[in-house]
Amino acid sequence: MYSYMPGEGLTVLKDFDLTLLAMQPYSTSSSTLIVGSETLVVSVLTRQHGSIESVKYHEHFYEMTKVDYAISASLELLHEFPELAPLVEKLIELKPLDEIDKSNLRELVEATGWSVEDVVDELRSVWRNPLDRVDRYRNMFEKYYGEALELVDKDPRQAAEKLWGAITALVKLHAALKGVFIAHWSHGKLYNYITHNVEERYRKLFYDLLKTGEVLHRYFYEGDLDRVTFNIHWTEALKLLDEAKHVVYKHTKVA
């Protein structure tokens, strides 16, 4: 039903619906077909190509339109997390959210340690090349890191969640510098990303950072650590985060 021209790169082809042919993330060579709602795919692609006509309508039934790799990889989330497609579409098109959308959004906020505003901005920008988001993730990391340090003495549970937000933002920054989209609300995706994209000599550092951060993330919701135990994990997380920051920042313009 669909045709593909080898060697032509990533494509979107017009059939009864729009279908995205995207390379798998993590620098593999395989590909997959991602079918999303026509409204969403057209909306996303017109932000890249500037015209609905150039994407939605073709004189020839199987005419193809090339798409940027990073955009294609970003839309992989619609394949792996199809329940988010309506939410992403409504956020991009500025449409009202229903209760299911709001519930999905709350789950993403809880998983990431980010504010609602930052998660919404992330989903609205899913079509963008991750390289264009480097400054955004760097600023988010600095913001959450600073807020965590300010809160630790008066509200350790809030501080713990802010630090988890800083950790996920730092991993997103690392991924953005490589032009890779990562669904950071999935802890498994974070670990997989590290396995395939972080230099071998730094992988244990990032694995340990995530594991320590997850303890603090759980503490925010369960309050299951006494202050002495919290301080042990907090100190370890700060040490690891500082080391990881230097690894990531050496690839940015920030000293």
What does this structure look like?
The chain is of the alpha+beta class and 255 residues long. The protein has two domains: 11-101, no CATH class; 128-249, Four Helix Bundle (Hemerythrin (Met), subunit A) (Up-down Bundle), CATH 1.20.120. The protein is built from twelve helices and four strands; from the N terminus they run βββααβαααααααααα. It has helices at 38-49, 52-56, 69-74, 76-80, 85-92, 99-112, 116-124, 134-151, 156-177, 187-197, 200-222, 227-249; strands at 11-14, 18-23, 31-35, 64-66. A four-stranded antiparallel β-sheet has the order 3-2-1-4. A hairpin with a 7-residue loop joins strand 2 (18-23) and strand 3. Helix 9 (156-177) packs parallel to helix 12 (227-249). The radius of gyration is 20 Å and the shape is globular. It starts with 10 loop residues before the first strand and ends in a 6-residue tail after the last helix. The model is unreliable at 1-39 and 48-73 (pLDDT under 50).
